Amino acid sequence: MRARLSLLVAATMCLVLLAFLVPLAVLLRTVARDRAVVAASADVQSLVSLVGTAEPAALRLSAEQLAATSHRPVTVFLPDGSVLGSPAPRTDAVELAVRGHSLTVDRPDGYEVVVAVQGRPDGTVVIRTFVSRAELTQGVNRSWLVLAALGVTLLLLGLFVADRLARNLVAPIAELSSVSHRLARAELTARARPAGPPELRRVAGALNHLASRIQELLRDEREQVADLSHRLRTPLTSLRLEAESLADPADAARITARVDDLERAVTSLIQQGRRRSTGDAARVCDATLVVRDRVAFWSVLSEDTGRTVTLDLVTEPLPVRVPADDLGAAVDALLGNVFAHTPEGTAFAVTLRPRPGGGAQLTVADAGPGLPGVPEVPRQSGGVPASMTPVIRGISSAGSTGLGLDIAHRAAQASGGRLCLSTGPLGGARVSLELGPPADRATPGSPAAFTSA
Q: How far apart are CA 298 and CA 307, in angstroms?
């Protein structure tokens, strides 16, 4: 925008300067020509009074003196054919002046000024002088150079002023853009400094108000989630008491362990909501540690349902740009789908590998019936192709809530990765979750996306 404003000012000033300087340059050339012709005519007129009274010798002396002082040839043609002053041929203009006509002739090499003086007893005397092209344009080139320098100076001065004004106008716009990008990166404390024209100051104020309002809404939403999660403690406490009162100690211990797991999940949800409301949530975790912990949790249930688990995890840490709670929720969603949508005894495999360029790639594949048929996508879903329907929030073709794959998809997208659905080597569904590296290790790449193989 700054360059365009400067270009607009430059174009406008060029048009104005051309409209002003071109006519002025033509006027200067005309004035110089008229000045030279008038000076030559004045020289000729100074001899007119002598022609009628002076003797030829005195007239010759006057003509020679005039030619020497005016730096142009002055010739006097007497009626008897003699020529006084500077030698010159009898041109057509001279022959015409003998008949009593004074005139100025424009020739290719200059101007010829001829004056006929009548009243002598022996006939008409013709006084001739010649103004060369160099004399006609004397000083014009220098004047044109001065005008060109003046025009360039004015243009540069205008561009400098336009650039300063454009910078003062563009700087607040660039700051507004920077603040909007920071808000898009969840930096809700970013605020714009009102500066520039009144319109931009109003935009900055509106953007700051919008950021404050978003921050308030998110804080209220997370507080409500935390409060709702906290309310679950009461039924959990009752469920724990019921489990402890069972007659079979083994059943009591098993159910109590499940209640403990559920209580830990509720506590984690409360803490996560509190941290996000204050903006200090951890954005990086070790994918190896989180995946191993969640697979260990689901392995107990897989033993109860007769499922074979193939676990292939790397041993070294794999840092990813996802909070541990979000990654744990995504792993729980993927493994929960296996247990919810495949028959008991269906085997599944979990693989965790480093991702090229940094990050990690988590793959969950099962030997079930595969992805079920997907219905037509409703209009409110935004026109997503049918192959992507399983990740649309709230839509499920298997009678579930439709949140599982969406949770995993959002976790991958937030890290700069993607979610891929395909048919796995076991014949069932294969879900691949690509997680991006931390910000200080990220490499340029394509934005987060969803693909279906």
A: 11
Its domain, for residue 197, covers 142-217
Domain count, the chain: 3
Q: CA 373, CA 234: separation in Å to the nearest integer?
A: 40
* β-bridge pairing 348-354 and 309-313: parallel
Burial of 267 (0-12, 13-18, 19+ CB in 10 A): middle
Do both 408 and 435 map to the same domain? yes
CATH number for position 292: 3.30.565.10
Task: Examine the domain organization and report whether 440 and 322 are in the same domain.
Answer: yes
Q: What are phi and psi of 75, to 5 degrees?
A: -125, 140
Distances (CA, A) of 85 to 40, 57, 67, 78: 15, 11, 7, 11
Q: What does each C-alpha distance from 210 to 193, 203, 275, 322 come to in angstroms?
A: 14, 10, 22, 27
**Nearest residue to 96 via CA among 77, 72, 121:** 77
| Per-residue pLDDT in tens (0 to 9) along the chain, 453 residues | 677 777 888 888 888 888 888 889 899 888 988 888 888 888 888 777 777 666 777 777 777 777 777 778 888 888 878 888 788 888 888 888 888 888 888 888 888 888 888 877 778 888 888 888 888 888 888 988 998 999 899 888 888 888 888 877 778 888 888 888 888 887 878 888 888 778 888 888 898 888 888 888 887 777 777 666 667 766 777 777 777 777 788 877 878 877 777 777 777 666 666 555 554 445 788 999 999 998 988 888 888 888 888 889 988 999 998 888 888 888 988 988 888 888 888 899 999 999 888 889 999 999 888 775 433 333 333 333 434 444 444 444 444 445 668 888 888 888 888 888 888 787 788 899 999 888 765 544 434 443 434
Question: Domain end: 85, 110, 138, which one?
Answer: 138
